[in-house]
Amino acid sequence: MVEIKIIDYGMGNLRSIQKSFEKVGATAIITSDIEDIKNAGAVVLPGVGAFEDAIKNLENGGFVDVIRDKVDQGTPFLGVCLGMQLLFESSTEGGFFEGLKVLPGVVDRFPANLNVKVPHMGWNELIFKDPGHFLLDGIPEGNYVYFVHSYHPITNTENVVATTIHGHEFTAIVKNAQGNLVATQFHPEKSSTLGLKMLENFLNFCQK
């Protein structure tokens, strides 16, 4: 059984996502040990809070290079919410901050002219762009997942697995070109049975 390592860098509801993985039969371990992450069979980067604080914590903790290396090596990798946003090149939250540069694109705020509530909080519908992606296995289109965010990534269409509409259409699930990385703007651990199914799909991918 693959051990999934959840990176503890001081940002995020780590225990919640760990418990959700355990519900689908995964061995999920919260760790801040660099060597532990280097040797991981699969990695999860969660996150709740501000981009600036998060990227500083990753830099100060020595996580940046090991995250990039794990993605480059083809290790199964899941980013969640802020953990998804950190994977991009930059963010405009609170200024301009460089990200991990694992995925192309910028993280930007919902435009003011959309006339929608920000933060975007609550349940919203997924629109599939890559219905054959492993994370969506066994999930019918039109299901709802749980969001809490004010910023979202703008990236290349070929990286987009699913979108959602809140004032305008934005990226809800993203992948890398290599295929080992997937990330969600929503919280699968807060998305009831649908979210658990996605975590189970990620676990199955890890075990292939």
Annotated CATH homologous superfamily:
Class I glutamine amidotransferase (GATase) domain
Number of helices: 6
CATH class value: Alpha Beta
Strand order of the largest sheet: 2-1-3-4-14-13-12-9
What is the rounded Rg?
16 Å
Summary keywords:
25% helix; 8-stranded mixed sheet; Rossmann fold; 208 residues; single chain; 4-stranded mixed sheet; 6 helices; alpha/beta; 14 strands
Write the layout of secondary structure elements.
Layout lengths: L2 E5 L6 H10 L3 E5 L2 H5 L3 E4 L5 H10 L3 H9 L4 E4 L1 H4 L4 E2 L5 E2 L7 E4 L10 E6 L1 E2 L15 E6 L1 E4 L5 E7 L1 E8 L5 E4 L7 H15 L2
Parallel strand pairs: 1-2, 1-3, 3-4, 4-14, 5-7
Antiparallel strand pairs: 5-6, 7-11, 8-10, 9-12, 12-13, 13-14
Structural features, described:
There is one protein chain. With 208 residues, the protein is α/β, with parallel strands linked by helices. The chain has a single domain, classed as Class I glutamine amidotransferase (GATase) domain (Rossmann fold). Helices cover 25% and strands 30% of the residues. It is built from six helices and 14 strands. The strands form three sheets. Strands 2-1-3-4-14-13-12-9 form an eight-stranded mixed sheet. It has a four-stranded mixed sheet with strand order 6-5-7-11, with helices on one face. A two-stranded antiparallel ribbon has the order 8-10. The mean pLDDT is 96.
